[in-house]
């Protein structure tokens, strides 16, 4: 059981609904808290190289906000009910996060290629992936973990269930992506989990277009982009990469921490097969 965001009268979703607007857009939103505990919302502000002031919404109440989008880049918004640092984003609050993308002004007229239309009406040919983590720890247990001298070991000692999720799903239920030879593939990653993730692509190199820390997004010009097969994505950071399929085949893209794609991280009981 988790807490989650929904848009209007639509269903609750994990990750939270995508916010995507052209640079310079004025955003007017109403945040309704249906929980029985206060909610603190982060990341809903003008992105201008300064940290966002959190927005507090009391239990069973609403609050209206209005702000400009700020500079083009890849950001996130998230909420918590415990007032703990991002490195402890597990438990019931773990899925209260979503991507916040600000496109350059020229993108307002639309993009090209196969794309999904966002709630802002903008169209682009990239894919967005929000990384989150869930655990069976309760709010009371997470508070106990946070107060411990070694929070990591205190949490492990409680033997919780864990799951590492990509757009709300864990391997092998994650999305399959199909491309053709020579396509230009652009992916955006937003790490709102409590752990860093070394992201690794099999078979191909990728170019790092931009990296962000949630406050600033640094874009690299042609000729200055790093070419990698593995990129370490810290907690709260974002990554935009581009790559080109040069060979036919079936390939993996995954976190290089093997535990994060192992059967032990699935919510259900693992099917270990007849071999046990």
Whole-number mean pLDDT? 88
Q: Compute the gyration radius: what is it?
A: 19 Å
Query: Would you list the SSEs in sequence order as H and E?
Result: EEEEEEEEEEEEHHEEEEEEEEE
Tally the helices: what do you get? 2
* Number of beta-strand segments: 21
Helix content: under 10%
> Outline, from the CA principal axes?
globular
Fraction in beta strands: 35-45%
User: Which runs of at least 5 residues are low in confidence (pLDDT < 50)?
Assistant: 107-123
User: Largest sheet at a glance?
Assistant: 7 strands, mixed
How far do the termini sit from each other?
29 Å
Secondary-structure-derived class: mainly beta
Characterize the structure shown:
- This protein is mostly beta strands.
- 6% of the residues lie in helices and 37% in strands.
- Strands 12, 13, 14, 16, 17, 18 and 20 form a 7-stranded mixed beta sheet that branches. A 5-stranded mixed beta sheet has the order 3-9-8-5-6, with no helix packed on it.
- Helix 1 crosses helix 2.
- It is globular and about 50 Å long.
- It starts with a strand and ends in a 21-residue tail after the last strand.
- About 6% of the residues have low confidence.
Furnish the topology, listing elements before pairings:
Layout: E1 5-6, E2 12-13, E3 19-22, E4 26-33, E5 39-42, E6 55-57, E7 61-68, E8 73-80, E9 97-103, E10 116-117, E11 123-124, E12 127-135, H1 139-147, H2 151-157, E13 162-166, E14 185-191, E15 197-201, E16 206-212, E17 217-219, E18 227-228, E19 230-233, E20 238-243, E21 253-255
Parallel strand pairs: 3-9, 12-14
Antiparallel strand pairs: 1-2, 4-7, 5-6, 5-8, 8-9, 10-11, 12-13, 14-20, 15-19, 15-21, 16-17, 16-18, 16-20
Helix pairs in contact: 1-2
């Amino acid at each position: 059981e988790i807490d989650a965001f929904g848009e209007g009268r639509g269903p609750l979703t994990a990750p939270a609904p995508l916010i995507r607007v052209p640079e310079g857009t004025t955003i007017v939103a109403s945040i309704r808290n249906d929980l029985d505990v206060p909610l603190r919302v982060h990341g809903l502000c003008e992105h201008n190289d300064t940290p966002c002031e959190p927005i507090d919404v009391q239990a069973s109440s609403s609050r209206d906000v209005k702000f400009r989008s700020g500079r083009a880049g890849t950001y996130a918004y998230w909420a918590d009910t415990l007032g703990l640092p991002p490195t402890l984003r597990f438990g019931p609050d773990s899925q209260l996060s979503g991507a916040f993308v600000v496109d350059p002004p020229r993108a307002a007229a639309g993009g090209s290629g196969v794309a999904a239309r966002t709630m802002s009406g903008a169209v682009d040919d990239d894919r967005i992936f929000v990384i989150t983590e869930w655990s069976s720890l309760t709010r009371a247990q997470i508070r106990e973990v946070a107060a411990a001298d070694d929070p990591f070991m205190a949490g492990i000692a409680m033997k919780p269930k864990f799951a590492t999720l990509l757009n709300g799903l864990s391997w092998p239920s994650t999305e399959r992506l199909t491309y053709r030879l020579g396509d230009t593939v652009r992916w955006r990653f937003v790490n709102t989990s409590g752990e860093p993730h070394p992201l690794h692509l099999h078979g191909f190199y990728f170019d790092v277009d931009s990296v962000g820390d949630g406050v600033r997004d640094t874009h690299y010009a042609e000729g200055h982009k790093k070419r990698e097969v593995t990129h370490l994505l810290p907690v709260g950071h974002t990554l935009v990469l581009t790559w080109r399929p040069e060979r036919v085949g079936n390939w993996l893209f995954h976190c290089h921490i093997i535990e994060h794609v192992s059967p032990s991280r699935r919510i259900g009981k693992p099917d270990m097969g007849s071999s046990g």
